[in-house]
Each structure stands twice: as structure tokens, then as C-alpha cells.
Amino acid sequence: MKNNKNRFSDNISIRNKKASFNYILIEKLEVGIVLQGSEIKSIREGKVSLQEAHCIVIRGELFVRSMNIAIYKESSIYNHEPTRERKLLLSKKEIERFRAKSEEKGLTIIPTKLYVIKRGIAKMEIALAQGKKLHDKRESMKKKDHDRELKQIKLI
User: Fold this and answer.
1) In contact, 63 and 56? CB cutoff 8 Å
2) Which of 97, 130, 125 shows the shortest CA–CA distance to 111?
């Protein structure tokens, strides 16, 4: 068996790039996430997709749904299901506050970033978000193009 130390990166940070384009992010919060052993190894390889993921409250606990963590090749028959619900770790008070805001104002809770800190602990950044309308997305695209043009002018 090969000893590949370089296949696991030390600085893992997976972002949901479409989150800031599709949503107006109102409030962000860092939470822990409950994972299995093969899931954390896949995350350390960078094989995660947050594009379709969203968070829901079930019986006073917060879960993330539709987050795809690829199957770890080196694992045996005890591998994980790629899109299972994963529990998020935060206090009851914070869960209730996020639940109340999401139900009252029609907001949603989405994951924006997943990263691994020292000692192999995975953390997730979630945000309370409001969906953007089509004209808001157009304005975001115009602003992004304008910033890109300004940056090119400064480099020349």
C-alpha cells in the first residue's frame, strides 16, 4: 500500500460559490458537523459539493440536506451514503432563533463554506439567506463585470 501524504491538503476550504449569487446573505454562523470517518477523509481530499445543500430543523435539531460528500475509495464496506442528512452542532437557543427567523420572514438557511481546522475537526459556515430576484442577479453580474474591468485597468 502506498503512503500518500500529499493527497490530503492541510488547508481545506470548500465554498458554495452560487450562494452569494442566488441569495442575499443576512447573518452567518459557524457550526460543527457530525461526520463519519470516511466522510472526513473525502472532505480532506476536497471531494464535496455544497451547491444543492440546504438546512432544515427537525425536532429542535438542525440538519444539512443534499450535501454531496463523495465516497472514499480506500474505505471498505463501511463507507458512507454520499447525500445523507448530517447533523449540525449548535446551541438550542441559536437553532430556535434561526428557525423562527426562517419561518417568520420566509428566509432559508444555507451552508456557505465547509472547512477543516487543526486536529481534523470539520466546521461549516451557515447563513440565513433571502432569495434574490432576477433583477438583483443582473445587478450582481454588472457589479462583478465592472470590478473586473477596474482591476484590469489597474494592472495595465
Assistant:
1) yes
2) 125
Q: Report CA torsion sign: 22, 23, 29, 33.
A: negative
| Architecture of the domain whose range is 13-155 | Beta Barrel (2.40)
Bridge partner residues of 87 (DSSP): 63
Q: What is the mean pLDDT of each run of 10 residues along the chain (156 residues)?
A: 57 86 92 90 89 93 93 82 92 94 88 88 93 84 90 83
Q: Annotate 30-69 with DSSP letters as a single string.
A: EEEE---HHHHHHHHHT-EE-TT-EEEEETTEEEEES-EE
Beta bridge partners of 89: 32
Pairing, β 121-131 against β 48-49: unpaired
